[in-house]
């Protein structure tokens, strides 16, 4: 905990935040590591970090600030290196993150996360639901109206869409309620 009463959820430097990634140099050079404050589910103010494409840093800062004003709780915000670059482990811990040099789950295509152009928030409250009924993270349930949960009419979803982001809850092939991309 810091002196100002903020719970520090992540305090890496850039080299730590990209340690061990397979991303090429030009991708790494396009990323920014940003500090963000948010309301935790414990009702306290937390400070975490997101690694994201630098063109999107200002928009993410602005929307996080608004989510804090709306008292929208967020479970955790740390670069995914903390989870050994495992999307599964990060989701299981309900961690919110952006950059991860990886393919789209179940395919060999690079994800938008690989360029820092996708952001996942509260995956446990907002799981990915596949057409075969599989849910990630395992055991998660989407309960619209519960704290930290997105719906199509949620002000955070509207704020992202206003800035030209797509919400995964609107995908045709699956529902990815925690996912935003631009
Ligand atoms: Zn995602």
Considering DSSP H and I runs of 4 or more, what fraction of the residues is helical?
10-25%
Strand content: 15-25%
Largest sheet: 3 strands, mixed
Low-confidence runs: none
Gap between N and C termini, in Å? Answer: 33 Å
**Run of helices and strands:** EHHEEHHEEEHEEE
* Cα gyration radius (Å): 15 Å
Describe this structure in words.
With 182 residues, the chain is α+β, with helices and mostly antiparallel strands. The protein has one domain. 19% of the residues lie in helices and 19% in strands. It contains 5 helices and 9 strands; from the N terminus they run E-H-H-E-E-H-H-E-E-E-H-E-E-E. The strands form 3 sheets. A 3-stranded mixed beta sheet has the order 1-3-2, with helices on one face. The chain is globular and about 40 Å long. The model has no long low-confidence stretch (mean pLDDT 96). It binds zinc ion. Residues 113, 118, 120, 179 line the site of zinc ion (ZN).
Summarize the structure.
19% of the residues lie in helices and 19% in strands. With 182 residues, the protein is α+β, with helices and mostly antiparallel strands. The strands form three sheets. Strands 1-3-2 form a three-stranded mixed sheet, with helices on one face. It has a three-stranded antiparallel sheet with strand order 4-9-7, with helices on one face.
